[in-house]
Design brief:
By secondary structure, the chain is α/β, with parallel strands linked by helices. 40% of the residues are buried. The chain is 40% helix and 17% strand. It is globular.
Length: 344
């Protein structure tokens, strides 16, 4: 009898162990991510009701952007100017953050410079050391202004720059000095938003908390690519990102990601941005589903900020809108499902 009881107890123990192993694999909780949206700086005051729709897609983070402006070849930078939109200035940034806090949203402050004559700052370049030093002083003032503001408001994350391709490669010592100055006044986490094609050329990732990538990788040239095709086409890029994350010992964060609701949306946004294009809601939805399926379960991947989300939800997006926003489009419910699954 004792042997029978012992055998029975052992069998029960093995069964329970196998059941636990099965549950741990098949019902393991989804990895929590930074599920964010890039909030478009509005012309006028943000009200509490403008933030509420963000929570309907289960986003836990919002990125706000204090814009600055420069000119091609000019060693100067302008920000917090009264001619800028309310949401781009310090006053608007602070109030936008306060409204986001009412819904428990975490915040990334993401400064971005618009270069007149060039647009994105990736090609911004100067010819003399004198000009570079002048620009560095102006840029330092810009970032330190928002580093101090971010610390005073207990902001979770600060991005020290966005898509400066040439300046990052030519002036690595400046960026390292900038990070040191920011760390002295700001206690939160830091990242930098590198464009998809030059994140490997950034020398200061060891000083930051996340490898930030604006993830507009050209994945597929088809008009309406199937999700399975897109997931397959992501494989090489994914392998490169994973290897780089492991090499640097830092998680990858998509500081921007998104697709327009138009034909050929996964083929390279810079070729589409100046076009109205042919409406294609399925293309946007498929592209987003593929990026979620590819990355959101990976432990080395921190999450991302969807480009982009407007304040007045009922007035934006919709089935006749071909722009990036998923608001009032089929993609909106898809995002809510994935963000809800990986809520942080």
């Amino acid at each position: 009898m004792n042997k029978l009881v012992s055998f029975t107890l052992a069998l029960v123990a093995i069964t329970l162990l196998l059941s636990a192993c099965y549950l741990s694999v098949s019902e393991a909780p989804a990895i929590k991510k930074i599920n964010g949206v890039c909030f478009v700086a509005p012309r006028h005051t943000v009200e509490t009701e403008h933030m509420a729709p963000i929570t309907t897609i289960n986003a836990g983070w919002v990125a706000v952007t204090p814009y600055a402006f420069s000119r091609e070849g000019e060693a100067q930078l302008y920000f917090d100017h009264q001619r800028q939109w309310w949401g781009e200035r310090t006053e608007g940034i602070a109030q936008t953050i306060q409204e986001a806090r009412k819904f428990g949203l975490k915040v990334m402050v993401k400064p971005h410079v618009w270069v007149r004559g060039q647009g994105w700052p990736g090609e911004y370049d100067l010819q003399t050391e004198t000009d570079w030093l002048k620009w560095e002083g102006a840029y330092m003032n810009y970032i330190m202004t928002y580093a101090k503001l971010s610390d005073s408001l207990n902001i979770e994350m600060l991005c020290i720059g966005t898509e400066y391709k040439i300046a990052v490669q030519k002036r690595p010592a400046f960026w390292k000095k900038l990070i040191g100055e920011v760390r002295a006044v700001y206690r939160g986490q830091l990242t930098y938003a590198a464009n998809w094609d030059n994140y490997t050329n950034v020398a200061f990732w060891p000083q930051l908390d996340f490898i930030g990538v604006d993830a507009y990788f050209p994945i597929c040239k088809e008009k309406t690519p199937d999700v399975s095709v897109l997931v397959n086409n992501w494989k090489d890029v994914k392998s490169e990102l994973k290897a780089f994350s492991q090499k640097e010992g830092k998680p990858i964060l998509f500081t921007e990601y998104g697709y327009r609701s138009m034909d050929y949306t996964a083929g390279g946004h810079w070729e589409l941005d100046r076009q109205e294009g042919v409406l294609n809601m399925e293309g946007q939805k498929n592209a987003l589903e593929a990026i979620f399926k590819t990355y959101w379960h990976e432990p080395w991947f921190a999450g991302g900020f969807l480009w982009k989300w407007h304040a007045r939800h009922t007035e934006n997006g919709g089935l006749n809108n071909s722009r990036y926003t998923p608001q009032n489009k089929p993609a909106q419910s898809l995002i809510a499902r994935w963000y809800g699954k990986h809520a942080g």
